[in-house]
Design the sequence.
């Protein structure tokens, strides 16, 4: 799951980035409203964490413009402006939640997880294919009643594959989504990670779900 943070305070942005990455999210950060609005229109995000007092374009203006074209992406306002009128305004403009600074990361994470559970496009708490079941909110993976422990990157890779079941994903696409890097053909990080994921997800079981498409990438599907 991919989250965009639009926050001009560097310490706060770094704090959020580190905490969310450690919890398995793919995270983008920008520090002004103009760049934030551009990314929102060019990239897919499951959730946006948005400050109000931003350089160039403020958060209220951003969400008003965003909601004209995107009514489904979840938006959490995170702002030092905690007055009731600001909260009401933010929610009326289309925010899904509002958290005032200062804040505890544990509360923010709980709110993020709660918002993602409300998603209308994907059943994040019940992804499945064949006998593989994933709770993307609780970071729980089970196959044929066997609990499988994955690293955060392995988990993010598996969720990406399951969300795009039947679609061949190139190494470049996987690298950009999971490691947030431009893929270098001399780097085998994707192949190594797929191999490790297969050792846990496929090798102990008769039916294989992760398949190689030579010269292109990988696909997860029943065969």
Sequence:
């Amino acid at each position: 799951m991919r989250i965009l943070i639009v926050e001009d305070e560097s310490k706060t942005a770094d704090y959020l980035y580190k905490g969310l990455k450690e919890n398995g999210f793919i995270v983008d950060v920008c520090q002004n409203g103009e760049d934030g609005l551009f990314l929102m229109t060019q990239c897919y995000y499951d959730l946006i964490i948005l400050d109000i007092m931003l350089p160039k374009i403020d958060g209220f203006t951003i969400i008003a413009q965003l909601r004209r074209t995107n009514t489904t992406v979840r938006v959490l306002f995170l702002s030092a402006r905690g007055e009731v009128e600001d909260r009401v305004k933010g929610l009326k403009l289309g925010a899904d939640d509002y958290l005032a600074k200062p804040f505890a990361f544990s509360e923010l994470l709980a709110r993020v997880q709660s918002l993602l559970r409300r998603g209308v496009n994907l059943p994040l708490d019940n992804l499945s294919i064949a006998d593989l079941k994933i709770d993307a909110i609780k970071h729980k993976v089970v196959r044929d009643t066997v609990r499988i422990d994955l690293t955060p990157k392995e988990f993010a890779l598996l969720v990406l594959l399951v969300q795009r079941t039947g679609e061949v994903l190139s190494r470049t696409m996987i690298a950009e989504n999971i490691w947030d890097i431009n893929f270098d053909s001399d780097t085998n990080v994707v192949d190594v990670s797929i191999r490790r994921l297969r050792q846990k997800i496929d090798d102990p079981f008769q039916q294989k779900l992760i398949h190689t498409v030579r010269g292109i990438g990988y696909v997860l599907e029943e065969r």
